[in-house]
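#dry-run=false #mode=assembly
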Amino acid sequence: MTIIRLTFLVLFISITGCATIKSDYTPLPAKVANENTVPPVDISFSVEIVSEIGSFSVIDQEDLVPKIKEQLRETGLFKKIVYAPFSKRQDKHLHFQLVVSGTKEDEAQAFGMLSGLTLMMIPISIDYYSDMSIFIIESNNEIFSAAASEKINQILWLPFIVVSPFFNDYVTGHRVVNSQIAYLVSEISANNIFSSSN
Amino acid sequence: MMIVLFSGCSTSNRFEIYYGDYGEGSYIEKASIKNPVLIETFDMKGKVAFYENSGYVILGVSSFDGEWEPRTKAIDLGKKIGASIIITQSKHTGNIAHEYSISVPTTTTAQHSGTIRNSYNYGNSFTYSGTTTIHGSEQIQRSYTTGQYEQEAVFMAKKGEK
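#status=ok
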């Protein structure tokens, strides 16, 4: 029984003894008064995730699609919002691209191993970046685009076990993409993109 | 107390290394207060023309090929030079495969048993048994790919912002 408890304790420490912190590069969403002067339009949207770090499992397409759809719906600018691959896009299409870069998987494994061998006593800092862009295509022309970029710093260090439930990869990663989606969608409203195209 | 910090962070900024100044430094002061607006586009010419017609001037351009450079680094440079708008464009040109191996500890245990008799087949015989444990390591090959891109950033500021 003691061995099982010890195993769980070691697993808990090795998985959660880190803090993942975002910088504040992503602007806050623009506050736009929704005056409903523009009739809502039908759109399709697509999502592309590009990992430049090797394997990446914190966020996938199935996480992003409902988040984006919800944010788009809240603007009140769109009537029918459907997910469609870029190749099957409708006349008015929003393409979201997320590029994740930073520390590559082999480098991260080496740092993780070093951290484990030192029982996480030595703080190890690893950087990741989230670059999210939106491209609005109408009749095969880009009519608007915007981007948000964020730096995410992961520190592997035993004392951070206290904050790790609130600042782990998953929580911070989702916090970052939520703020990026909110900003990019607010830019559509702020710039009245579809006001002249109806 | 000295804290040793190992870091896997890249400090180089290729937007800055490959930056070419257009000599419009007199526009920079007001814009340096906050983060510049970042715009990623497939239509660099169209976007630059749009902002030039809206009263912006080009402060400088950065252009290079290679792995994806995080756009936060363009923002860092933009803040330094006082840009209020950064327009970036990238074109995927290919992939590079990376291979590496990780060493995983392995343990192999062998059971031995047998009987020892004397050579004339009389007298006592003895049985024995035991285990041999061999500790070793196994190399696991892994691979991933990273993209190569042509990347360009145009740094702009509003005319007469100073």
